[in-house]
Design goal:
Layout lengths: L3 H10 L2 E9 L5 E7 L3 H5 L3 E4 L13 E6 L5 E2 L8 E10 L10 H14 L2 E15 L26 H13 L4 E6 L5 E6 L2 E2 H21 L2 E4 L13 E9 L2 E2 L12 H21 L5 H5 L11 E2 L7 E2 L10 E3 L8 H18 L16 H6 L9 H10 L1 H7 L1 H19 L4 H7 L4
Parallel strand pairs: 1-6, 14-15
Antiparallel strand pairs: 1-2, 3-4, 4-6, 5-6, 7-9, 7-10, 7-11, 7-12, 8-9, 12-13, 12-16, 15-16
Helix pairs in contact: 3-8, 4-5, 6-8, 6-10, 8-11, 10-12
């Protein structure tokens, strides 16, 4: 844990001029207020305030200001900003005037879940796989979905046109303290993936937020636009953010059991059961955009049915083949537009509830042969993910357990946001509709 004095010294030694106090809104967009180095003491005393009404519902009515409490361990210099008069950032918790944490703050929602885990002696290690696209910008610098890249899965240069940008992204991330495990060209043209090492859940959520900003900033340097939009192009793969999760207790991986034929413990299976039980209700968080559902319903290695497997890549949950201390459960439905704090909170909470209730997971991928009709699936008790954001918001509201994990007032705020987005979408008339119906009707 870094002390206040250490940060003040570092800022002086490194010639840092600006410090960005960062936090996410409920949907996961990173926000910030910048303070000058001279104001850092005040910021570290938790005295920087902002008007929370816009980001956290209407708190203006009772005149409530919200306070930013910086997390000293999150101090990092932003390598893509000028190196003279540097810029650093601190991730912050959002609090009330009396110092209590705001219950609707995503970081607080994850912290609450991790506290419940700690009471059982559990810690979670999470390894995210973030996919994204690199597109060209037009002559005015506006992002497009144009690319000249024609590379596919794990292709190499000169086919892979993102090679240099990816290289700089990895080096920048390492400079910021990330341990990057690997990076590669993904299946769709212009699609990439960078994987960083397992971390404790809160650390990983913080890292995902940092990762997205770093990737976008470096892409810009190459005249490219990096997007974490789940399905930017029809007819090509979308971007997922698979979460590989392991559960530890007293330094031991609880998901592994060498006595079992498949090497998986009861806890691993029950964890899967819990996630499957609440998957429909979790989607509004793990897949928060209208566009998220275009990824989930279109194949291309993205899941649709609530099934688990040790093999099939289209399943909701896959158990990678590695066993022993590295045994993990891979959740394949989240996408990178999700707020990572909320996505981890709901996934871990649902998994823990599964362990507590000894929830046996339902259908496995092998129970769903190719070409099985919707009726046959329904008869076999195989559910599928919501097809729209609207359906996902309803599912969230109906799930009592999830409402308790996220908090009633959060769910009200959040689902109202989802509905507003859905209604805005429904008020549009798309090119597809005009082309399809204008002449025919
Ligand atoms: N892009 C795929 C998805 O939408 C995943 C591809 C992969 O297996 O890495 O989830
Ligand atoms: Mg991938």
């Amino acid at each position: 844990m870094r002390t206040r004095e250490e940060i003040l010294d570092l800022v002086e030694e490194e010639d840092v001029e600006f410090i960005r106090l960062q936090f996410t809104d409920i949907f996961g967009t990173l926000k910030n207020i910048a303070v000058t180095a001279g104001q850092l003491g005040r910021a570290l005393d938790n005295r920087v305030t902002f008007n929370g009404s816009f980001l956290y519902g209407d708190r203006r009515a009772d005149g409530e200001d919200l306070y930013l409490h910086p997390d000293p361990d999150s101090f990092v210099i932003l390598p893509w900003r000028p190196q003279q008069g540097k810029v650093a950032r601190l991730l912050c918790d959002v609090c009330r005037a009396d110092g209590s944490l705001l219950e609707e703050s995503p970081r607080q929602i994850l912290r609450r879940t991790l506290k419940r885990a700690a009471q059982k002696g559990y810690t979670f290690r999470v390894h995210p796989e973030c996919e994204f696209f690199l597109f060209h910008t037009d002559e005015n610098g506006i992002p497009t979905t144009v690319t000249h890249d024609q590379a596919g899965y794990m292709d190499i240069a000169p086919l892979d046109l993102g090679e240099n940008a990816r290289r700089d992204m990895v080096l920048t991330l390492e400079e910021m303290g990330f341990q990057v495990e690997s990076s590669h060209h993904e299946k769709a043209p212009a699609q990439h993936e960078i994987d960083f090492a397992y971390g404790e859940a809160m650390e990983t959520a913080d890292q995902i937020v940092t990762f997205k900003t770093a990737v976008r900033s470096i892409a810009k340097r190459f005249g490219l636009h990096a997007t974490f939009m789940p399905k930017p192009r029809a007819g090509a793969a979308g971007s997922g953010m698979h979460l590989n999760i392991s559960l530890f207790q007293n330094g031991k991986n609880l998901f592994t059991d060498p006595q079992k034929e498949d090497g998986l413990s009861d806890e691993a299976r029950w964890f899967v059961g819990g996630v499957m039980e609440h998957a429909r209700a979790m989607c509004a968080v793990t897949n928060p955009l209208v566009n998220s559902y275009k990824r989930l319903t279109s194949g291309f290695d993205a899941p649709r049915d609530i099934i688990w497997t040790v093999k099939n890549r289209n399943a909701l949950i896959r158990i990678p083949s590695v066993r022993g201390e590295e045994t993990a459960v891979e959740l394949r439905f989240p996408d990178p537009s999700a707020n990572p704090y909320l996505a981890l909170a709901v996934c871990l909470a649902a998994g823990m509830e599964g362990i507590e209730k000894k929830t046996e997971p339902g259908a496995r991928a092998k129970d769903v042969p190719e070409g099985m009709s919707e009726e046959e699936k329904a008869a076999a008790g195989i559910q599928s993910l919501p097809e729209t954001l609207r359906e996902a918001a309803f599912a969230m509201e109906r799930d009592e357990f999830l409402r308790q994990v996220l908090g009633e007032s959060f769910v009200r705020l959040y689902t109202a946001g989802c509905r507003a987005e859905w209604n805005e979408y429904m008020s549009q008339v798309s090119e597809w509709e005009v082309e399809k119906y204008l002449y025919r009707t």
